[in-house]
Amino acid sequence: MGCDSDQGSTGGSCSFIGSAFQDQALKLGVPVGILSARTVACSMKRVCEEPSHPVLLSTEQRKKLSSLLEIAQYLLAHSMFSRLSFCQEVWKAQNSLLLEAVWRLHVQSVVSLQELLESHPDMRAVVAWLFRNLRLLCQQIDTSCPSLDIARAVLSDFVELLVSQGFQENSDLRRVEETGTMSQVAAEVLQSMLSLALDALAAGLQEESSDHRVVSCWLGVFQALPCGGVSADALKRFLSHTLTQVLTHSPVLKASDAIQRQREWSFVRTHPLLTTLYRRLLVMLSPEESVGRLQEVLETREVNWQRVLSCVSTLVVCFPEALQLVQDWVARLMAHAFESYHLDSMVTAFLIVRQAAQEGPSVFPSYADWFKASFGSARGYHSCSKKALVFLFKFLSSLVPWEAPRYMQVHVLYPPLVPGKYRTLLTDYVALAKTRLADLKVSLENMGLYEHLSSSEDVTENQPHSQAAQDVEKALLVFEHTGKIPVPVMEASIFRRSYYLSHFLPALLTPRVLPSAPDSREALIEALKRADKIPQSLYAAYCQACSTAEKPPEGAASGMRAEPTHAEEPLGPLRVALRELRALMADPTQADVISAQMAVVSERLSTALEHGDDDSPQGRGRIQLNVLAPELQQQEQLVVDLLLSAFCQSLMVASSSAPPERQGPWAAAFVRTLCGPTLLPAVLTRLCQLLHHQGPRLSASHVLGLAALVVHLGEPGSALPEVEPGPLAPASSLPVPRFLDSLLTCHTKESSLFCLRFCTATLSYALCRVCPQPCDSWHSCLSPGLVKKFQFLVFRFFSEARVPLPQEDAAGLPWGPLCLSPADWKMATLALWRQGHFQELLTGEFRLTFGDWLQLELEIQPGADALSDTERQDFHQWAIYEHYLPAPSASGGCDGDLQVACTVLINVLMDFYQSSRSWNHLESSGWVPGGHTGSGDLLSRLQEMVLDLELEQGAATQGHFVFSVLRSRLQPLAGGAGVATSLQRQQELLACRRLLLRLPPSILVGGLQARQPIDPLCEDFFHLVNSELRNFSQGGALTHDITIHFFRGLLNACAHSHDPLLTANLTLTGCQTKCPILLTSALAWWSSLEPILQSRWRKRFQCPLPLELQRLQEAQQFASNFLAPGSTSPAPSPAWVSAAALHFAVKKVKTEGARWPKLDCEREELLVPLFFFSLMDLLSSHLTPNDTVDPPKAVDTCAEVLECLQRRRVDWLVLFQLTETDAGLGHLLLRLAPDQHTKLLPLAFYSLLSHFKDDAIIREEAFLRVAVDMYFKLVQLFMDGETRAVSAPASRRLELQGQSSPQPGNPVQLITEARLFLLQLIPQCLKSGSSNMAELLAGREDWDPGVSSALLSRHRAVPDTDLYQEPRLF
């Protein structure tokens, strides 16, 4: 047949050979098919016997066999070939039969593999032959194999055959020994090959060994599945059977072994070949089916715990969606355990939780958290009965000999919640656990302050001092950021005194040369000393050691500089792992492979940080940062920079091959790795440095990478702790997305452009990631502030965005161009802006409202703005009048209402002013036009809008709307009595005053149209003055600016009135009764006010001043004449106005102790108000000491007026009994002084003790009542803390009966002197003065029992003279 020839057979030769076979068969008397089959088999045997590869044909053999098989095909086609006979003949030479030759029979359709294998008389021999040849084939498949493609095809076809035959729908794998069919052969061969791989893995594989090649090749078969010739059902049955076989193979380890050794079976420590097998099986079966199979196997079979737990690790690491599945599975196991007291379920649950938890917080919650959630509350599994409690503690006790120390530490430090009557169960377990920990040389007392209980490494007692040094460094870092003693340090000083005193304090108080300026270590030591947290002896020893310490040699300092080299040593493995991860990004859809590599990164990261970064309770508090000066330790910055760079680079690689929505979950998994309690503060600090301080200098790739990072940091939502940005921040704490948004500012051109680029990248990435999903998904991962800043900057920089444009299709998202051409940010920004899907997402809190726009515009510093002054004004004009004013309120506009727009602008301006000295505006100049912020431009816009509104509305009938806005802001602060509320109200009122000064004065007085009377239009301003501004007046006068502004408004109202004189007179007459402090303010500033009034009135009206202004002139002239030598004309009316003028004139006199005999000639109506003004001046000298008020002079003035009142026997006591219900002068005077001054009148009363004349005291019947009332009110003020605001001026001391007079600055001394004065006075008073004392003391008897007793006894001792008078009968 020419079987030894390497030439192919032609059609003619095959025909000739066929004829020859027929002739020979006829001659021998045998069927031609049998003869030809035997001949072909013999020829095939000779081909295979030639020296070659153990399982593969050589090139020469392959050619010969190909010719032979062509002849066989011809014979078969012409019914001259018996397959059965051929198979029988082939198997007779099975020892020399090559696997490739058998495969070629199948490929060239001579005899199928199934037919050939089934024809063997001994199935076990077939199994052995296949197993041996498949093993040899796997052993020879490597990169050096000359026929690698053929070898892989041979292996693939045999696996396809074995899977399809071994796992048919009707095959019963439990009866394969009975059936004797191909199903038996296939199942046994597959099982033998898997067992070979598992045994080799268990024994340990050398990288270059033949066994490693066999196992690697065979397990690589699972990567090629599914095969085309295998049904989906058969494939799934095969994979499920394989997973079961892996989990149950060689079940020699007990549960106690698993408890003791499971730390060695983590994902990273499991052989990569095995984790690759797990990943492929889990991908094909889906996580849900895999968890179900795990559960079924554990319930029905003896298992290999190492394989089970390593499979659990692979499941949670590579499949994020498996987290909830595993948690639900554990919950079912725990529920079943406590319902049936089933120990196996309990063991399984604990092993699964511990295995998953050791993979890190980015994969699974920590064991400490799970244990607390399961047993730390009344809803725990153990809380149903005593039997459940006993079951739990018996189980925990049985774990003690086997489990790792860190688990016992969790059980002891976070014990199960136990009712008091069963407390002994807990104490017995704690004693047992502590004994075991002591045997293992692990101490709870010596645990570090910041140590994580669920880290992957056990804590031993071999490094307490190094642990204390690390705790000191972390405590110093927290103290630098917050200025407060860290909470763990305070807790340790109380609850863990042994570690605190023995290790932490010695590490903190290490002797050294103290710096010239105290550093953070010295400040922390002093803070602890003040809190009595450092023993005096230890502190003294530290100070003594520091005083004798010497400076270290220079070489030591240079040695410190060498630390970065040592610090980078642990980063080598981490750098390699990140490089490998970046290489995998070329195909980011390999979710399981990338997740596996992320587990490696996480493990290397833990090593680099020198501890496990987990989600333990110690790290759950708020993150404290200093945004203005963020600092990182050297090692932390090296690690964080490496991670952030790797993330940015990996994102660039991934984006070059797939858009964000098709990159899989790798980025989210990477970010979860960054969110551990130790690493997250460092990451946020570094982001603060990069985004807030170095943003404009970042490259395009860094901007894109950090933008994606920000999106994924927003995904966990409330799972991340809040951030405290620093002591000067406007909010005490912020969620992470809002904190990151706050780092982006728009103050300058550079910061605005960077903010725009970053927002563009962030929103584009987020939109690509969630485009097919609902809007809620997009909203959940972004801060509204970031979206609003993007809208604001687009409007500001691109005039194209200010006009409606046709929205582009959602298919052209701009992330792709960003990756390819990051310089073209304008194109990318406008492409994003025009996206229809993006515009649809701008709803609710994500839409830029008018108020939001104003707030962001106020941040702009005009001197560093990207827009010129003209461009900025044009932009403001467009934004206000063309965009927001006509826009509906639902879209953030004003519905065309100019008053609404003004209201919003007023509120935003006032809010901005109050926050302008916060952490983001330290250099703000407030409302000064042309300052560092854009408030000046917007104030100009507000002035224009207010004037437009006045022209539109005409004369107001219900008061100006500005006052309504101010009232709405002040009213919520009216009820608070605390210092903080009071200061906030003062700040709010200051903002109100500044706003009024910058608005047209017509707001204060009248409208733009003439109407009579004009005074009702001042009601709102009068109310504001009486209720608010009066309380910030000084000496009975408002500030100069608000006074001048009011009179500007008055002149403006007169200019628009038909009768200017009447308008002015009516307004000022109304001031006398409704707002008298405006008149006293005019007198206080008359020297600067009068020239303005005179000039403007004469120019505008060409007539003398109105009568009421002339009266103010007369009062001022009277005061000047009074102080001048010579006679003085009587004081003009009203007398209180003249008294005010005289008071202000006296204040301007610099001499002390001046005598004014002219007072005796003045009317009583002038003396009483003058004394009131003098009392207010006296109180002001103690409340607000400054150069304008001289305390000794204030006392002398009061004394002079009081002496005159006493000489003339004028009733001056009425000033100390003023109430709001008083009519006439009393009601008026209360409106001339701040409430705080009138409340402190008792203090002024007793400050004048030395000037009360004895005869006057006795003669005044009401004096005792007033003195007692003032005394008790003074005591009440002291008890309420109101006297703390009074300062002690450096003045001469007054004398009273040879004793020093009390000073208001010393409330205790003043009360003491007042009490002594009363006790001396009570016996001397007339009986009429001491009557009805019981009514006066009502409710106050206990305030001073001595004074009360003296008053009541005096009242009872004086007999009623009416009893001795003769009765009048008629």
From TrEMBL:
Gene Ontology, cellular component aspect: chromatin; Fanconi anaemia nuclear complex; nucleoplasm
Occurrences of domain Fanconi anaemia group A protein helical (ranges): 465-546
GO biological-process terms attached to the record: female gonad development; interstrand cross-link repair; male gonad development; male meiotic nuclear division; regulation of CD40 signaling pathway; regulation of germ cell proliferation; regulation of inflammatory response; regulation of regulatory T cell differentiation
Domain Fanconi anaemia group A protein N-terminal: 90-443
Annotated coiled-coil segments of the chain: none
Residues of the Fanconi anaemia group A protein arcN subdomain domain: 569-802
Domain called Fanconi anaemia group A protein C-terminal: residue spans: 1137-1345
The protein's name: FA complementation group A
UniProt gene name: FANCA
